[in-house]
């Protein structure tokens, strides 16, 4: 699936959550026809970066949520205080693993799993304290989590 399709499908999910295309249009302060052009039955326009961020905000999702494939039936991002933002958690774990590879860390499997567990714990704490509305820079997170001699 390309980014245009992913954004369109995710925007449709947000519209459904809000009560339909008209509700999304109201939340975005756009005419109904403007929303229909990007997520209607026969869309004529794609969702650009700026509109994607506005749609995420309208639905209460974190920056970048619209750009990621969430599959069918997968848990949605956190909406209520105290909920765990699954998308943020998965993103943080994937990005942390990529950062470990980039840094060429020489970790045993046990150390790597421990670091990922600490990353998950940090995401849980972050979600609880802020609602999980933004992504955490993995380089910064790894610097906090790694032993000082690394």
What would a concise description of this structure say?
The chain is an all-alpha fold and 150 residues long.
Q: Would you mind describing this structure in some detail?
A:
The chain has 150 residues and is mainly α. 60% of the residues lie in helices and 0% in strands. It has helices at 3-18, 21-28, 32-39, 49-59, 86-102, 109-130, 138-145. The radius of gyration is 18 Å and the shape is elongated. The model is unreliable at 73-82 (pLDDT under 50).
Protein topology:
Elements: H1 3-18, H2 21-28, H3 32-39, H4 49-59, H5 86-102, H6 109-130, H7 138-145
Give helix and strand order, one letter per element, not per position.
HHHHHHH
What would the average pLDDT be, to the nearest integer? Answer: 77
Shape type: elongated
Structural class: mainly alpha
Distance between the termini: 38 Å
Q: Approximately what portion of the residues adopt beta-strand conformation?
A: under 5%
Main sheet overview: none
Oligomerization state: single chain
Helix residue percentage: 55-70%
Indicate the low-confidence ranges by residue numbers. Answer: 73-82
What would you report as the Rg, rounded to the nearest angstrom?
Answer: 18 Å
Q: How many DSSP helices?
A: 7
Tally of DSSP β-strands: 0
